[in-house]
Each structure stands twice: as structure tokens, then as C-alpha cells.
Amino acid sequence: MLAILVKRLYNNLVGTENLRYGTLPTSADTVAANAVTLTSAAGAWTWGAWTQIALAAVVLVETQIVAVSLENFVGAIAQGEVEIGIGVAPVGAALGRFQIALINGNQLVKPIRIPAATAVVARYRTSTGAADTVDAKLHTLTAF
What we know:
Elements: H1 2-14, E1 20-24, E2 36-39, E3 51-54, E4 63-74, E5 80-86, E6 93-99, H2 100-103, E7 107-114, E8 120-126, E9 133-142
Antiparallel strand pairs: 1-9, 2-9, 3-8, 4-7, 4-9, 5-6, 5-8
């Protein structure tokens, strides 16, 4: 019993035994884990609809979102923001908002924690006043 306690304490301090990096969405969410397309509303700085990134049934354990990848921008992007939240589209509760320049392929300054069995959503807005789109994936860490 003491050996198990010491091992768990060590692993918690060092944090390397069970770490798992992943990506949302997974193939359980979309075909071949395609990135999810986020669309801004046709009005400057107006949020588009919340879009489902991962279903609650896919987020089996507490998960940290550690980075966001954005690609395939469509529209004349002058400035833009992505908001990550929890909920089932078209409803979401925001957990973090990020300017595109700060997150494109980069780690977040501080991870966003998502409770187990919680659906993840995202939405997008730009300064252009057009319905611009971007494809997004969330990079995750579990067993921390």
C-alpha cells in the first residue's frame, strides 16, 4: 500500500507516467478527425454560431486544452477571435477567448480545463463584416 502511495505521489510530482496528448475532434466526432469549420457572422465583430468540436461521450476524462490549430482561412482576415466553450451547439458557455494571431498553431498561455463527460464548442468572429471561415482543431492533454 505504501509503495503504491509513493509511486502515485512521485508520478503526480513529476507528471510523466500517464500523460496523453490528443486532438479534438477525434474520429468519433467527425470523419477521420477532420478539423471543424467555424464561421463568423456577417457583421463586424459579431460571433458566429457555436459549433460542436467534441461530444460529451468523447471527452471521457478531465481534459486540458493546451493549444489551438487554425488553418484554411477564407475571407480577408484583418483581425479575428476564437472563443472556446462547453455545451452542445448551438448553445455554449465561453471559457476562453483568443485573438487569432496569438493562437495560430501555438500553445495557450494557460490550459483550459474541461470536466469529464462535457461537450466542447467553439465560435469565431472577425473585423471584416463578412461570413469568414476557419478550420480549427484543439490539442489536448489528459492524465495530468
